[in-house]
Write a structure and sequence with these properties.
This protein is 47% helix and 12% strand. The chain has 290 residues and is α/β, with parallel strands linked by helices.
Length: 290
Amino acid sequence: MTCAVRYVVVLAALLLAKVAAAEDRVVPCPGFTVMGEGPDLVLVPGLGSSPAVWDGVRDSLAKDYRLHLVHIAGFAGRAPSGEPEGLLERSRAEIIRHLDCTGVTSAAYAGHSLGGFLGLTLAARHPDRITRVVVIDSLPFFPLIFDPAATPERAAPQADAMRASIMAQDDMGFAAGQRMGVASLVRDPAYHEQVVEWSLASDRASFAGAMHALMTTDIRPELAGIRQPVTIMVAANRFAPRALVEPLYRKAYQELAGTEFRVIEDSYHFIMFDQPEAFRDTLTAALPAP
């Protein structure tokens, strides 16, 4: 082999290696379900939940909007995509990457629980991509629901203990805990087992890590920077009456100018299951006209 030929072979090998390395760094599109026609609307479920949480409104919304049904990695049967500690950051990045992959310059957003929490941070950090947000029963700092004076530092020991407890349970113990807890999340027993099954199909470390992040992340300092319209749906019931929950939510969101609050009576956390008609009407009214 001559020197010239050897040079060409080596150069070709180096170029192929660079191409292969570049391909290894390419992050694939998330592959979320897209359906319907019209203005773009991103729908994001909550902790341990499936995109099927939107089934009650999916088909009717798809008549007027192009829906982007996000499935968070590590939840409800989807494999985790990294370490549990970075789940919230990766989920935000994945939603933006999905919009890029589908050619969406901007979209409305609706999120339940953890999904609503993510939506607020996306609106604050990507104001050009998120046009408005509908938050379904979610606070900008989760521990406020049981401690109005909570801070991330004050909540950290409890968050650590909760994460450790979840990870220490065997499958049977975790399932029993989920079946006990769902009674305080969904008033309608017909949906209890479905919600439990989503949790049981979730990656345990992702589930526990996301709960820990929600308990130790306070996004209230970011609220003042949100200029998009925001609607907050608040669940009220005999255990958490309107007289208590509405002032709690209004105070938590006091830095967010122009927020619209919609209190849904006789509902637990999963408003879409407990009050489906009120949920559909409130959500539709909060969205941009198709």
